[in-house]
Amino acid sequence: MTRESTMMRKKEKCQDSEDKDKISGLPDELLLKILLLLPTKTAVRTSILSKRWEFLWMWLPKLEYDCSDYSAAEQERLKRFINLNLPFHKAPVIESLHLKFNGPVQTFEPQAIELWVAFAVSHCIRELSLAFRVIRDFFIFMRQPVRLPSSLYICKSLVILNLNDDVLIDVPRMACLPFLKTLLLRRVTYSDENSLQKLLSSCPVLEDLVLERSEFDHFGTWKVNVPSLQRLTVEILRTNDFRELVVKTPSLKYFKVTEDYTENGSYSFSSNTMPKLEEVEIDSVYLGFDKFVTSITFVKRLSICVGANPLEALYREGIDFNHLKHLKLCQCDYDWSKLLAQLLKDSPNLQELEVYLHDGHEEGYFHPMLPWEDGLNCVPKCLLSSLETFKWTRLFGTEKERHLLKYILRNACCLKTGTILFMDAPERQVPVEMMIQDLLLSPRGSTTCQLVLNCEF
Question: Could you give the CA distance from residue 102 to residue 18 in angstroms, rounded to a whole number?
Fold first, then answer.
């Protein structure tokens, strides 16, 4: 090594040392803001830099521990680290604590986690997120879920609570969460059938609620009675035990209900009027659709994928969707075109219409399409006076589909844009190019409509 290169390296080391000294000389408040930009694991590692940094991370108000991809030995080391350091954490307020563990190992005892949460509550926790996904096998199937400390249910600082998987909801009699606005309960365990309602009744200002049913949940009714609620997402894992969904949320603006299709069976739905409802998303085979519709007549945006009996009316006559502006309809169901005709007739102010095929619903797409105009005595008002945007994706191109498509294009007098995307299906009898040419030459109600026709690849 030459003398010049040696001097250069010494100069670089001196510069690095000076830079570290400059950073270490910054005020604690600024250094903590820098550490907050790092993952907790990385922030902890700064303690080896110097005496100045040794305990600085222990003033962090936000802590996140994720060992979902750790080995058993790494999980054990993290448990010991949290047990050793969390009781001596120096931040007067812990704004957020995120704990995520995943795997077949029972490293994290429920009792230890209960103590960690209790410590966070004692430090005015604002956001708590717990996810404990245990792979259930013969040896740990009877594992006890994590029990939350009773102090959590009376925490006056908590604003966001996110609980997932092996967490037990056991609500004490005097529960009160006066400032909780966001609550997410995914696949949790309830101590009894009233636990959910007791928890919800303790949240007077709750605005956003997500409920996902666990496969081990054997309670038959979910009751959501929250006057302040504005957003509700319900994800139902179908089991023979589930019988009823009751929703009483007069302030609701957004409502989404989805379910899987693993088992047959239906459940009833009941609700009060929701006059502030703006957006609804439905992906359900077993939902009592007729009763559901009567509760959402004020909706402005509607996305729908439902199972329907072609021998029965989808919903009773006399229901109008006068506020509906945006409609998105999945074409996987046998009777989707009949539902489309009914909704067009009952939505006089519709401005946007999209027909699509939900990912994973391709199997139901190839049911024969019913004569879709059977429910129409005249052209729907929305086609004549309000519809401006029309989109149909994943179109196969059958004769009945093209008939429906031509009907809409011929009667939509105010249409500004139309987008038609055919499925990539080489087995079709009529080539896409011929269908596109036929549609381009077909009559259109709007002379100014910009029509885009293509094939998805």
Answer: 43
Q: Where are the beta strands (DSSP E) in 352-457?
A: 352-356, 389-395, 417-422, 450-455
Query: Coil, strand or helix: which one is 75?
Result: helix
CA atoms of 291 and 267, how far apart (whole Å)? 11
Question: What number of other Cβ atoms are within 10 A of residue 362's Cβ?
Answer: 12
- What CA–CA distances, in Å, run from 328 to 171, 301, 305? 39, 8, 9
Q: Tell how strand 279-284 and strand 254-259 pair up.
A: parallel
- Look at residues 316, 275, 278, 322 and name the one whose alpha carbon lies nearest to residue 295: 275
- Between CA 159 and CA 196 the distance in angstroms is 18
- Confidence class of residue 360 from pLDDT cuts 50, 70 and 90? low
User: Which three-class secondary structure string do you get for the chain?
Assistant: CCHHHHHHHHHHHHHHHHHHHHHHCCCHHHHHHHHHCCCHHHHHHHHHCCCCCCCHHHHCCEEEEECCCCCHHHHHHHHHHHHHHHHHCCCCCCCEEEEEEEECCCCCCHHHHHHHHHHHHHCCCCEEEEEEEECCCCCCCCCCCEECCHHHHHCCCCCEEEEEECEEECCCCCCCCCCCCEEEEECCEECCCCHHHHHHHCCCCCCEEEEECCCCCCCCEEEEECCCCCEEEEEECCCCCCCEEEEECCCCCEEEEEECCCCCCCEEEEECCCCCCCEEEEEECCECHHHHHCCCCCCCEEEEEECCCCCCCCCCCCCCCCCCCEEEEECCCCCHHHHHHHHHHHCCCCCEEEEECCCCCHHHHHCCCCCHHHHCCCCCHHHHHCCCEEEEEEECCCHHHHHHHHHHHHHCCCCCEEEEEECCCCCCCCCHHHHHHHHHHCCCCCCCCEEEEEECC
- How many residues appear in the chain? 457
74-103: pLDDT as tens digits:
777 878 888 888 888 888 899 999 988 875
Q: Evaluate whether 288 touches 263 at the Cβ level (below 8 Å).
A: no
Q: Which two tokens stand for residue 368?
A: 């024969």
C-beta of residue 193 within 8 angstroms of C-beta of residue 170: no
Q: Which of 202, 189, 75, 99 is nearest to 142 (CA)?
A: 189
pLDDT in tens, 277-304: 999 998 887 666 677 888 888 999 999 8
Q: How far apart are CA 73 and CA 79, in angstroms?
A: 10
Domain ranges of the chain: 1-60, 61-206, 300-457
Three-class SS of residue 264? coil
